[in-house]
Fold:
Amino acid sequence: MRILIVLSGVSGTGKTHFRTHHEDYRDLPQVDIADVYRDNPFIPRGMAAVASVWPRVMKAFERGDEVILEGYFLRDSQSRWTLNRLASRSDVEVRYLNFWAPLEVCEDRLTGAKLRGEITEEEYETRLSMLRRCWTPKEN
Structure:
């Protein structure tokens, strides 16, 4: 069975760092939902983004039986429900790894990415705005 490993968390929680530095994950095919937003800045967040990223996920499975998907999928959200439904229809098992970091850490990491030229000013502002809207204290 194919396995989709979802690294879920707001910007700056360490999803990409984890994926690129963890021996078990760094060589797996990877899809980042942020790429969907970069390619189509007018796509609404949530279910529409999940539906748009799914063809990329399926294409990534051509390179292996395990694929990493980076994004933010709130527990009990419509986007997570949509992702799970698409996966079950495609005979894909979904495993979630949820990431969290203090708000100040997330903001600092985003600022660093902008200063290093990894994201544009526009993307920085969009991510920062979304981060401040979506960030929540750590669940117990």
Observations:
- The first helix runs from residue 15 to 21.
- The chain has one domain: 2-100.
- The radius of gyration is 15 Å.
- The longest strand covers residues 2-8.
